[in-house]
Amino acid sequence: MTAKIIAVANQKGGVGKTTTVVNLAASLAHHGKRVLVIDLDPQGNATTGSGVDKSSIESGVYQVLLGEAEVKDAVVRSEAGGYAVLAANRTLAGAEVELVQEIAREMRLKNALEPVLNDYDYVLIDCPPTLTLLTLNGLVAAEGVMVPMVCEYYALEGISDLVATVRKIRQAINPRLDIVGIVRTLYDSRSRLSQEVTEQLQAHFGKQLFATTIPRNVRLAEAPSHGLPALAYDAKAKGTLAYLALAEELLSRK
Ligand code: ATP
Ligand code: MG
User: Which of 52, 80, 237, 251 could form a disulfide bond with 219, CB atoms 3.0-4.6 angstroms apart?
Assistant: First the structure.
């Protein structure tokens, strides 16, 4: 079986992209899946949150994008998460500038992943909150986009921007790209606004809206400071269970 590549993206910042990548990866690994996390954000939060020391990275996604390393040589293991990581650190911000002069610069990640596709069941890509050349590499490599969103008043506008971006990429370079699903994060089921936004999402996106919601849960926010996915930090926390449920929903979709 060849890997399903999912980019986790939303141009809006702080909506739980990185939290979703790390915890969905750990949850899929818990279900016996072989998972690779790719950290495409120079902030390196998915790297740190997986328990990988950013400063110790010899080669990571930066070297891969520039053709200086093969994915199989650059991956490291998240012991706490049970998955592989193609790590990022601040040098990745420089890749942006250096890539601009390269040929097929938006195809770099896609091409680099080709030789390892049989080694994984899922590849989850953590995208930065901007539509940079890095994000573009993620969206070109992926077959699906998972969109975490917070049910706020302006959230739907953000989503329509992303839907427009996905459509453009599908037309121009990656015809197989589709929205895998929208995940409601930092969710408060008692809030009237959450319910209203949910109704609109159901009307617009139907089955593309994941039924599983991720609640606001302090254990999810604490876990990264220990370099642990929530599953390894507090297996019983509401947030942990929510991500396990999200993984099950994703697996059941096939
Ligand atoms: P950026 O756009 O900066 O990359 P992001 O979309 O990746 O942000 P995260 O870094 O995952 O968002 O989350 C933003 C902050 O909210 C972090 O401090 C994170 O720990 C916290 N957070 C995310 N999801 C939850 C949740 N369900 N419950 C509580 N805190 C959360
Ligand atoms: Mg992030």
Answer: 237
